[in-house]
Amino acid sequence: MIYQKMLTGKAPYYLFCNDVKPFASHRHHEIELSFCLSGSYKITCEGQDYELTEGDFAVIPSMAAHSIPEQEPLKRKALTLELGFALLGEYFNSFLEQGSDCMVIKKSDFDKHWTFCELSDCLRQTALMKEDKEMDFAELHIKSNLYKICALLFQLFQERNIINIPSRRTEEVKKIDLALEAIYDRYPEALDVENISSLCGYSKSNFCKIFKNVTGDTFHNALNSRRVEIACILLRESDDTIEEIARKTGFLDSKSFCRVFKGMMNQTAGQYRKINKL
Fold first, then answer.
1. Using CA of residue 246, residue 250, residue 253, residue 256, what is the dihedral sign?
2. How many domains does the chain have?
3. Could you tell me the CATH number of the domain that includes residue 268?
4. What's the half-sphere exposure (Cβ side, CA atoms, 13 Å) at 75?
């Protein structure tokens, strides 16, 4: 499981317009919108598969585990947009309160709906702007479109009468993000549940329960996933020994590192290095 680091002011959004390819399960603080420009593809969110065809889009909530599974090698294209607090400020909290499930909007259900049509047009225009390498002030045009996309999304949510989740989830996601930031940045350290739960302002038992509710994983699994992710990079790109990699990624010793690595990767660290060494 990959945790993607929270967007900052230097990169207030992510926007991609490309062919759809498989992507491993991951989580991030931002809201993600996937708009099918052509063909069709599947998205898996929290273990459930959703099929998108041309004109459909999915809104993936904050901290939901999602991936793009292996699919038939057909031509398919998508616009992928990640939006967070860095771009939207306090309006981002309104997104968090819209729902905790993946929301799929089908063109076949809304093709004559004004808000949906306006939103689809805006998404297609944004895709064209992203691909136009010679467009003057493209970044400004794109950013103005992103605000319009968000406003239209809110309007569409209201018109669909989506039931709000409790507003306390907004605060829970913010606090748990402190734990995920610690996992992301401080994985070499001896992180323990007691210290991280205190950092987030929870007792140990409440923290463990809320962390699992928000991320779908335990704190220890999330921490080990990050450490193994970094270990894979070091195995591919460095000549460090297994003992050195274990130390650099926060494991007590090489024995515990090898046990966790094999459990997560279904192969030993040595086997992984032999196959993937650059």
1. negative
2. 2
3. 1.10.10.60
4. 1
- Of 43, 125, 137, 33, nearest to 88 by C-alpha is 33
Give the range among 119-128, 169-178, 189-198, 228-237 with minimum mean pLDDT.
Answer: 169-178
**What's CA 14's distance to the chain center, in Å?**
11
Burial class (CB in 10 A: 0-12, 13-18, 19+), 205: exposed
Residues 111 and 178 in one domain: no
Q: What is the token pair recorded at 205? A: 């038992």
Task: Examine the domain organization and report whether 229 and 100 are in the same domain.
Answer: no
State residue 160's pLDDT score: 63
Query: Is the whole-model pTM more than 0.85?
Result: no
195 and 140 belong to one structural domain: no
CA dihedral (28, 217, 26, 68) positive or negative: negative
Cβ of 235: how many Cβ atoms within 10 Å? 25
User: What value does the mean pLDDT of the chain take?
Assistant: 86
Query: Do both 69 and 181 map to the same domain?
Result: no
Query: For the segment 210-253, what is each residue's pLDDT rounded down to a tens digit?
Result: 888 777 788 999 899 889 989 999 999 999 999 999 999 999 99
Q: Are 149 and 252 found together in one domain?
A: no
Domain residues for the domain of 265 are 168-276
pLDDT of residue 92: 82
Residue 254: predicted pLDDT:
94
Considering the domain architecture, whether residues 90 and 116 belong to the same structural domain is answered as yes
Q: At residue 171, does pLDDT exceed 90? A: no
Q: How far apart are CA 66 and CA 45, in angstroms?
A: 4
How far from the centroid of its chain's Cα atoms is residue 45's Cα? 10
Same-domain pairing of 119 and 174: no
Cα–Cα dist 278/212, whole Å: 36
Cβ-contact 43, 60 below 8 angstroms: yes
Res. 89: pLDDT tops 50: yes
How far is residue 216 CA from its own chain's centroid? 13
